[in-house]
Amino acid sequence: MTEIRPVTEAKAVKVPHLPDAQTVTEVKHWTDRLFSFRCTRPASLRFRSGEFVMIGLMGDPDPNTGKQKPLLRAYSIASPSWDEELEFYSIKVQDGPLTSRLQHIQVGDEIILRPKPVGTLVHDALLPGKRIWFFATGTGFAPFASLLRDPQTYADYDEVIITHTCREVGELTYGKELIDSIRQDELLAELIGEGFHEKLRYYPTTTREQSPKMGRITDLMRDGTAFRDLGVEPIHRETDRAMVCGNLAFNLEIKQMLEDYGLREGANSQPAEYVVEKAFLD
Ligand code: A2P
């Protein structure tokens, strides 16, 4: 039977689009504090794994003028540069100006994405080395979700160690599933190898809920536990490179530790042995 629609419904209604709009294609809620989402990628957007972009939503209308301004924050791109979509991993802050609203986005909604990727957590900012450490706390895992899926990471290093410290076990799930997906990916699995020869090492720890490995990564390195568990020598300037992304206190503490091991901070313009970026907190 042919469905007859009223003429008014068939008319194309022009919906005003957000500036630099991208469409949400998937949303996953990991805990009551964490979610991730995917969205369309502008055809012209090129980025290096580990970089961030400004994303957000339209803010509330100004009570005096009624005008709306975009509400944007820096988010690391969690997807690799070869992915046709973009992925982001975010905290939910109940009174956070952006994330209090962003956490409610659904498939088909639009977000604003300024297509100007920047950042220091890029391979170009490091001198060649044998082993790379990715140190993350909380949503600081995001840039590494990109770098861990970048074939260059495994081409450049013999060993890739990702540490992730979170308060609770559930906050590790996004990272754990990502690591599992890499090991199951045909192309990446071939690059990382298998068993004893596997290049990728994953070291998750929790601080406020019981898990197989408890404690802050900084303390576990200071007393030697992390190096013993991983069966590697302590960090050394000749061989080791590091990228850090977490909360401010963590970044400052591990930065000092890396300096004490003899590593120097690098930048795009002057590559060295480690780089740091602050994880976004609304
Ligand atoms: P802790 O529970 O001992 O504070 P947050 O969710 O607050 O960003 O924290 C994420 C993780 O980072 C938590 O497990 C927290 O441990 C840890 N953390 C916070 N500060 C530091 C620090 N200075 N060094 C190492 N880990 C830290």
Gross morphology:
globular
The gyration radius over C-alpha positions equals: 21 Å
What CATH first level of the largest domain would be assigned? Alpha Beta
* CATH H-tier superfamily of the largest domain: Nucleotide-binding domain of ferredoxin-NADP reductase (FNR) module
What structural category characterises the helix and strand content? alpha/beta
Q: What sequence of helices (H) and strands (E) makes up the elements?
A: HEEEEEHEEHHEHHEHHEHE
Number of helices: 9
Please estimate the helix content.
10-25%
- What number of domains? 2
- By DSSP, the count of extended strands is 11
* Strand arrangement, major sheet: 4-3-6-1-2-5
Residue stretches low in confidence (pLDDT < 50, at least 5 long) are 1-10
Beta-sheet strand percentage?
25-35%
**Small molecules (ligands, ions, cofactors) in the structure:** adenosine-2'-5'-diphosphate
Which second-level CATH architecture of the largest domain applies?
Answer: 3-Layer(aba) Sandwich
- End-to-end span in angstroms? 52 Å
> Main β-sheet, in a few words?
6 strands, antiparallel
Q: According to CATH, what is the topology of the largest domain? A: Rossmann fold
Mean pLDDT: 93
Pfam families: NAD_binding_1 (PF00175)
GO molecular function, one term: ferredoxin-NADP+ reductase activity
Cofactor: FAD
Catalytic activity: 2 reduced [2Fe-2S]-[ferredoxin] + NADP(+) + H(+) = 2 oxidized [2Fe-2S]-[ferredoxin] + NADPH
